[in-house]
Each structure stands twice: as structure tokens, then as C-alpha cells.
Design brief:
This protein is an alpha/beta fold. It has three domains: about 160 residues, Beta Polymerase, domain 2, CATH 3.30.460.30; about 150 residues, 3-Layer(aba) Sandwich (Rossmann fold); about 100 residues, no CATH class. Helices cover about 60% and strands about 10% of the residues. It contains 16 helices and ten strands. Helix 10 links the parallel strand 6 and strand 7. The two termini are about 40 Å apart.
């Protein structure tokens, strides 16, 4: 059984190419059905995310070839091969396995160690299973990848530490406020960064949002998305007195959240903590505000420094993760090599049993006085002897036939010679006994 992986990702292809090759969930199902019709004996799965499109194929025949897969992708996406071929990588056997394990572990992601990709790989496996395009090899490969992903994340902690400005901002807020459900978030501005922080806050049970901008319609759009309330910009001072978390992300060219303004708001706050996330450049919050009592201010530079530190820590864990992959890829490839021996070993057992049955029949014919119990005992003895003699032969065969890398062709050649010699000997014995 051979493995082939063809795909592109955020490093090899620009977004305009990735989006042309991307599959929807229904599109994956349709494509896999088409693949099964064209190559009924091959196994296949498709991983399609915003950062990658990859097709993984396992086959024990010469089909499909690389060109077959390229033609299939072109047909599925209604694109000429020349339009996407320059951006593709093509990997086989051990390299394909290692890449696949790296993807599932978040080591090949745009954000090193991110957790979302393993769920996307699980979805790809579910889709392929539903369409009947997985079999023994891909089933084993996917489940092994999930185990590798768990081991990498557990042993290296590579996913620990937020690596986006929005997630870091919420992480810091969670150290100040134990529970977001009772806290009110004031959002000033309605840009993409503000939206991302709101999304992260909602994931942490924040539910009370007030949005204000100089354009009320923009405020209403964000308020609707986070199930909050939009208010006119002239209510800003009143809302500052009520808020616990303030997200500032406007294009104002100078700080409008001044020390004087925040000091006035604090007079009505009763000493409650006030946390500012200033995502604007130029800054919306005066740098002196952070010196006021019960007030915390984090701007994009402060958040960026934390992101960089966390990213550096993740990178430092990468070496350990790659060593884990060394072990796991070797284990999977050993299993894959051994599966190639199964047909040979099964034939060897059949040959051995054919010979033993002829000898058993010959013996029982010479001993007609044996009763049924004795005949059964002799039959069981012969079966046990066959198994006992075959076991060391099979163990040696598996040991010599489980090489990887450059030794694979050599061990396969050795395996073929051993099995051939065994078959020839069995055939001679059968011929002699039948002739006699």
C-alpha cells in the first residue's frame, strides 16, 4: 500500500489560489464520491481550510498516478491544471506521513501550535468515512495522527500561550476579572480588531456589550453581531461610568480617552476596576491613564510584546515536537511495511497447512484402528506443530521486512526471495505427495 499527498498551503500559494481550490463541506462529499467512482480500490480524504487544501490517497495499485490526481482536482474545481500546479507540493510514503502528522499537530499552521486544525482534520476524516473512501490504511493513519497531535500538545505544551493580539487581550482581562458574565464591555469603534476581541470575550461567557461609534449604523452592525446594544457617541461619558472593560479601536488621530475624562468617570464608579484594551494606532487612550488608581491599560505594543514572547516559547518547543514525530512516523511506517507482508504470510500458512493435511491424511490412512477421539487428538497436534514452526519463520520475515527509508526496497526484495523459496519448497512437497 502506497501513500500520496498532494496539496498547497499558505506558504506555497496566495489566498487567491487557495480560495479557488477550496472545497465546501458538501463539495468535499461530492468530490470524494466522484473519486470513488473513478478509483474504486483506492482510499482518499480531502482537508480543506482557509490555509490549505490537501488530498491524501492510499492505494495498492499503480492508480491513481500523480497526473490522475491533478486531473481529478482540476475536474472537481473546474480549473485548468496549469493554473494551480506551480503552487502544489507532492509527497509520498514517509514524507507524506510526516507532513500529515505535522498538520494534525498544528506544526504546519500559520499560527504554530493552533488547536483548530486538529478538529478540521477530524472533520475531513468524518467526511471521507461517510463517503466510504477510507479503508484500513487511512483509518489507521488518521487515528495515529490524532494520537500524535495529543502527544505533541501534552508533552510540549506548544499550544500554551496566546499568539494573537485579540486573544492575548482577553487572556489578560481574564486575570483581572474572574467571571466575564457579570461585566459590561464598552466597545468604541467597530473595526475588525474590535470584532475579534468581542468574539473572544463571548467565548469566555461575556454577554453584556455596548457599542458606540461616531456612525451609529456601524455601531448597530457590531452590536447585532455580539448581541449587544448600540448607543450614540455622545453617550460615551455615561457609558464609561458603567463599563468594566473598554475596547478602543477608532481611527481618531489623537487620544480622546484622556486622564481628565477617565478621572471624571471614576468619580461615579465607586472604585470598580476599569480595564482598557487600546487597539488603535494612533492610540485612543492617553498613556497617562494607566497611572490612575483601579485602571489598567494595554495598547497594541504591550499586547504585541506578549504575543512575541508566547510565539518564541512555542518555537522553542518545536524541536521536541519534531523528535516526537520522528518516533511516531517510524512506528506508522513500520506498521505500513508489515501490512505489505500479510498476503505473503497468509500464503505461507496456506502452503504449510496444505502440506500438513496431506501428511495427516497419509498418517491416518496407515492407522485405521484409531478411534474418533484419537484421530482428533492427532489432528490438533499437527495444527499446533504447524503454528509452532511457522511462528519463528513469520517473526523473522516481519523483522526483515519492516525496514523504512532507503532500506525498504532491499527488505522487500529479501521478503520476496524468502517467500518464494518457501512456496517453491511447499509446491515440491505437494507435487511429490500427490504423485506418490
Amino acid at each position: 500500500m502506497s501513500i500520496l499527498l498532494i496539496g498547497l498551503n499558505h506558504r506555497t500559494a496566495p489566498v487567491e489560489i487557495r480560495e479557488q481550490l477550496a472545497f465546501s463541506r458538501d463539495g468535499v462529499a461530492t468530490a470524494l464520491l466522484l473519486f470513488r467512482n473513478q478509483f474504486p480500490t483506492a482510499e482518499a480524504a480531502i482537508i480543506s481550510t482557509c490555509n490549505r487544501v490537501e488530498m491524501i490517497i492510499a492505494s495498492d495499485s499503480e492508480k491513481p498516478t500523480i497526473n490522475d490526481v491533478l486531473s481529478f482536482i482540476a475536474q472537481s474545481r473546474d480549473l485548468p491544471v496549469a493554473q494551480f500546479k506551480p503552487y502544489l507540493y507532492t509527497l509520498s510514503e514517509e514524507q507524506a506521513c510526516r507532513h500529515f502528522f505535522r498538520v494534525a499537530s498544528g506544526l504546519d499552521s500559520m499560527v504554530l501550535g493552533e488547536n483548530q486544525i486538529v478538529n478540521q482534520v477530524k472533520q475531513a476524516f468524518a467526511s471521507a468515512s461517510e463517503q466510504g473512501t477510507t479503508g484500513r490504511t487511512l483509518n489507521r493513519m488518521f487515528h495515529h495522527a490524532f494520537e500524535v497531535s495529543k502527544r505533541v500538545r501534552t508533552e510540549t505544551k506548544i499550544s500554551v500561550g496566546k499568539v494573537s493580539v485579540s486573544s492575548v487581550a482577553v487572556d489578560i482581562a481574564s486575570r483581572i476579572f474572574e467571571d466575564f458574565s457579570s461585566k459590561q464591555t464598552l466597545v468604541i469603534g467597530a473595526g475588525e480588531m474590535a470584532q475579534l476581541v468581542c468574539e473572544h470575550l463571548r467565548e469566555h461567557n461575556a454577554s453584556r456589550f455596548v457599542v458606540t461609534t461616531r456612525t451609529l449604523n456601524n455601531a448597530k452592525a457590531l452590536a447585532e453581531a455580539c448581541k449587544g446594544t448600540a448607543v450614540p457617541f455622545d453617550q460615551l461619558d455615561a457609558q464609561l461610568a458603567e463599563a468594566d472593560i473598554v475596547i478602543a479601536a477608532t481611527s481618531c488621530p489623537m487620544p480622546f480617552l484622556t486622564v481628565e475624562r477617565i478621572r471624571e468617570a471614576q468619580k461615579r464608579r465607586g472604585g470598580r476596576l476599569l480595564f482598557f484594551i487600546d487597539l488603535a494606532v494612533p492610540r485612543n487612550v492617553d498613556s497617562e491613564v494607566g497611572k490612575l488608581n483601579h485602571t489598567y491599560v494595554y495598547d497594541v505594543d504591550a499586547l504585541g510584546r506578549i504575543v512575541a514572547e508566547n510565539q518564541q516559547q512555542r518555537t522553542a518547543r518545536l524541536e521536541v515536537a519534531e523528535k516526537i514525530l520522528d518516533d511516531e512516523v517510524a512506528a506508522f511506517m513500520q506498521w505500513l511495511d508489515q501490512t505489505k507482508l500479510n498476503p505473503v504470510i497468509e500464503q505461507m500458512y496456506r502452503d504449510a497447512r496444505d502440506v500438513s493435511e496431506i501428511e495427516l491424511h497419509r498418517l491416518l490412512r496407515r492407522c485405521p484402528d484409531l478411534n474418533d477421539a484419537e484421530r482428533e487428538a492427532v489432528t490438533q497436534l499437527v495444527d499446533r506443530l504447524v503454528n509452532k514452526f511457522m511462528h519463528p519463520c513469520v517473526s523473522v520475515l516481519r523483522r526483515h521486512g519492516s525496514g523504512t527509508g532507503n532500506s525498504t526496497s532491499r527488505t522487500e526484495s529479501t521478503t520476496t526471495l524468502l517467500a518464494g523459496a518457501f512456496r517453491a519448497a511447499a509446491s515440491r512437497e505437494l507435487s511429490e505427495r500427490k504423485a506418490g
